[in-house]
């Protein structure tokens, strides 16, 4: 499974880096509804178990992470030799690796977050280093998220000799230091789990188990997979990106109720996402896959791959 980068002509990337990109990362204002009111409406029911901690504190902490773990659509401006398609190819390959090793969706999105945030701390990374950075990001994410993560030699093997075990270990240390060991963002998959659980909540239900349709979950996750390959997706916070994707599968009212986001905070992302949603709607609806040694309750959480790059070409 070899990662190759297309060198087809694309629109040239900027070769200068405005200082404001480094000092003020682009990030839309969250503008959530007041936490106390929102907590009384919904999160009282989500976090009703005392062992889960104070529900308002949990919700507030999630919002704080949105501000702390910043990302920026202009990240490639720091690397003049890179093009947006190279990032898309890399992330698509990581999705494929995740399916091969039966890794969770959360693992992929942690790796994506680590990769994008690391790249924003660096300058002039050459395209020959992208696969090493990507597979190392996945290596770190798997150790955090998976009960039985693949071994180091398996991550090196999947690069078909492009990255050695020692190179992955060296890059791991570089990434961890660059990220200041801040490795726990609230990913789009975390938001999706939460939003759907709120929308589909029933009285006296077991909130430790998903209350939503697994097919609905994977269909929304597929839309998010496709969107995240486009670097423009980094214009939006993860909570907003997820809320916009959810709008294509449920009512606006449910999304506002579940996310605490006012519609004017979601609408721009919703409109941007429209071509992606339309492209997916023209194909066959994805279904939950069965995986050997994965329980029925967990199978929707396993990252799956489809021809995302082929879908992007349509835009």
Number of helices: 14
Structural class: mainly alpha
What is the string of helix and strand elements?
HHHHHHHHHHHHHH
- Radius of gyration equals 19 Å
DSSP helix fraction: 40-55%
- Chain-averaged pLDDT: 83
Which descriptor suits the 3D outline? globular
Task: Please report the first level of CATH classification, the CATH class of the largest domain.
Answer: Mainly Alpha
The stretches of 5 or more residues where confidence is low (pLDDT under 50) are 3-51
Q: What distance lies between the first and last C-alpha atoms, to the nearest angstrom?
A: 26 Å
Can you identify the CATH superfamily of the largest domain?
Cyclin-like
GO cellular component, one term: nucleus
Organism: Callorhinchus milii (Ghost shark)
Protein name: Cyclin E2
GO biological process, one term: cell division
Topology:
Blueprint: H1 19-23, H2 35-46, H3 55-68, H4 84-100, H5 105-121, H6 130-145, H7 152-157, H8 165-178, H9 188-199, H10 214-228, H11 238-247, H12 252-259, H13 263-281, H14 308-312
Helix pairs in contact: 2-3, 4-5, 4-6, 5-6, 6-8, 9-10, 9-11, 9-12, 10-11, 10-13, 11-12, 11-13
Characterize the structure shown.
By secondary structure, the chain is mainly α. It folds into two domains: 75-179, Cyclin-like (Cyclin A, domain 1, Orthogonal Bundle); 188-313, Orthogonal Bundle (Cyclin A, domain 1), CATH 1.10.472. It has helices spanning 19-23, 35-46, 55-68, 84-100, 105-121, 130-145, 152-157, 165-178, 188-199, 214-228, 238-247, 252-259, 263-281, 308-312. α5 crosses α6 (130-145) and α10 packs across α11. The protein is globular and about 50 Å long. The two termini are 26 Å apart.
